[in-house]
Each structure stands twice: as structure tokens, then as C-alpha cells.
Amino acid sequence: MMKKLILILLVFSSCVDRFTKTENLSKTTEPQPRTELTQLEKNKIDSLWKRANRVGLHSVERQLILDSILQIKPDSAYFWQQKAMPLYKARKYSLGKPFLEKAVKYDSARYLPYSAFMKCLFSKEYEESIAEFNEVKRKFGDSYVMDHTYNFYMGLDYLQLNQFSKAKEFLEKSKNQQFEDFPNDPPHEACHYMDWFYLGIAEFELKNYRKAIACFDESLKVYEKFADAKYYKAICLYQLGEEDEAKDLVKIARSEASNTINEDQVIYEIYPYQIFHRLSRHSRIDPEN
Questions:
Q1: Is 115 a member of any domain?
Q2: Would 202 be classed as within a structural domain?
Q3: How many domains is the chain partitioned into structurally?
Q4: CATH number reported for the structural domain that contains residue 283 in this entry
Q5: Which of 110, 120, 138, 250 could covalently link to 153 via disulfide, CB atoms 3.0 to 4.6 Å apart?
Q6: 3-class SS at 26?
Q7: Which tens digits make up the pLDDT trace of 36-82?
Q8: What is the pTM of this model?
């Protein structure tokens, strides 16, 4: 996994020049007035930002301090994003959305992919997420956001819209994109285990149970106790008539229920198709109650 993280960082580093170009492109294609600051104003913003970081992330006080910063520099995409982010994490999506739109307005190259990601995993605005990822691709090309490809999140969007063939299409694109980025790695390492998991989910929904099992097995090569992957593999086995093996695997999955999806955002949101989460009956000691 450490090798995988290092390789991803190298890919991100290789994208710096292109990112700089696309950031400049966003400013030429979507010109916005920029506030030139005096040294006194810069010092004031610095002082306010230090104050903001001494209070709670989700506090009203922090929001008010950010408002003061934005009165000085209303075209700061970063500080608009800082207003939006804790509201999304608190599941106050409608409050955060206008602030995120402001961040996108002033720096679309940086924050349009982030907005599309937030709409996929947080606010569940799947059609808008797809539209924004398509816009990002059209303007700036394909890349990664929050540890995964744009195609990965588009695959999740389509899964949640029950468009399973489209989901598979984009998850395949994500897989192939990573194969190209990491050509020297074996398949289970080149492609993120979460991609394999969701590709398995797409195959499962399409009733391609053997293909789904093969994908779950690739995921399990990296995350060996991935309970969710084992659970869905068990369902596939059951559908194929291998009931005894399926029952045994379900028991194992339930005994390893703490080994669920471990993405950074899982502390805020339940992921699509996540079986073992805090609200699920499957995570209880007695799943029948």
C-alpha cells in the first residue's frame, strides 16, 4: 500500500504543470475580478485566519471569522471552500452549497472536481455530480480528486442512479486509467481495491456473478479482511447455487464487520453499498433483530 501511495503522489506531482495551465485557462475563459490587497489587509487576513483555526471547525464563530476575511477578499476561492466544507461534513448541504459554488466561480480548475466529488459522496446530487465531472473533463482533462479518478466517482454516481451498465463503463475506464498510470504493478495493486469492489458491485447488479466474484477477489488481495467485499461475494455464491460456501463466507464477513470501507470520508458519510456501517443491522451482534 505504501508503494501505491507513493506512486499516486508521483502522478499528482506529474500533473502540477497541467494543473497550473488549467488554472490559468479557467481565469482566461471565466474572467473574474481580483482583489488586490494592501499589506495591511494581508496582515489582517493572516490574523483572522489564525483566529479561525483556534475555534471549532463546525462553530458559528469560525463562520463569522471567515465572513470577515471574505469582506476583505471576496474573490478567495479557498476561503469560500473553507466555509462550505464543515457544513457538508455536518450534513448541512443546502447551507454549504452556495459557498462551494463561490469557490468554483473563483477557481474552477481546483474546486469544480472537488464540488463534483462532494455531490457524489456527501449531498447525493448524482446528476449534478456527473454534469460537473463532464465539465471538468471537457475543460481540463481527466485526473484524480480525493484519492480516486473522476471516472471512479462517476461510476458511483451511476450506481446510485441504478444505471448499472453506465456504472460499469466508468469503473472500467477508471481501472484502465490506473493500469496506464501504474504499468509495472500487478492488477490488484495498480487498480485501487475500492475500484475493484465497486466494479464487482456493478457486475453483481448486472447478474454477472462470476465476474463480480473475480473483482471482489482482486479487492481482497489488498484488503484481505474487507468484510463488505466478502459479504457481496457470498451473495454471488448463493445466486450461483453454492449455498454452503456462501453461508460460511457470510459468517466470516460478519465476524470481521469492523473491517469495512475505510476511506477518509467514511466518518462523515455512509458509502454506496456499504454493508457494515453504524446504521446497518448487519453490524449488530444479532443481525436478525
A1: no
A2: yes
A3: 1
A4: 1.25.40.10
A5: 120
A6: helix
A7: 899 999 999 999 999 999 999 999 999 999 999 999 999 999 999 99
A8: 0.85
